[in-house]
Known about the structure:
3-stranded antiparallel β-sheet
Amino acid sequence: MLTPTPASVPPPELRHLNANGLRLAYFEWHAEQRGNQPTLFLIHATGFHARVWDQVVARFAARHVIALELRGHGRSSFAPFSSWQDFGEDVTAATQSLGLQGAIGVGHSMGAHALVHAAAMLPESFARLVLIDPTLFAPEVYLHAPPVNQAPHPVSLRKNRFESPEEMFNRFADKVPYLAFQKEALRDYCVHGLLPSPDGQGFHLACAPSTEGQIYNSARRDRTLYNSIRAIDRPVRVIRARASDPAILPFDTLGSPTWPAVAQEFRRGEDIHLPDRTHMLPMEDPQLTADLISQPAR
């Protein structure tokens, strides 16, 4: 039977907050350490959940950490959305509710996109940002965004029901993008990424495939993104993985979605390119991820 992160790492507390009309879930490690060092505030990528950070958090001894679950993910409630700006407003409201001050904001992929909006709106809440392979396209992409594609995204067709976390693990272990995960991180994704099905028959994904597909289909609809990027006057570390391979269809889930020049758009941006790592960096190499979070801004 699969088990969560080893008992040597104290489990976090599951909590909820009300933000932007939603009930959002978050996990908190070492609440008693709040204020001793800057809080680590972690935001996951599309289709994942807060506990995919477990192996990264395990590299930080007795550190106050909060990992938020975005709308429609994990144990957070769902509400319709029209663009990724909606997720940014959620994270902004959650940041306010948590009363964060001088935190280190860490976002992966779409989570990094949402975190940018929060940091722009609440500058005192963050001392610096670490954006891990963020889904931040070139400015013109957002200016000329096509209408939302109403056709189901291919990811909407993924398997949604499983008999157990073990079945999920065995099914995913040798498939892209999960084959890039450390086995412990894949275990965490499976153990915490399933919820009991209402009919009592097995489990379903904590992020519905239809929700994941809608997020991908609306990825280019955020006209306010670069206003937020250019408003941030804090150190921002942009970490980019290997380039995306256009020959992989419908899209390369292991390639980087980050516009290579985006770090230059931040007032205090730093670009780190890791051509030997994939888009799944936090689950692929938790130690490197923790090191990149820990390194002070240049």
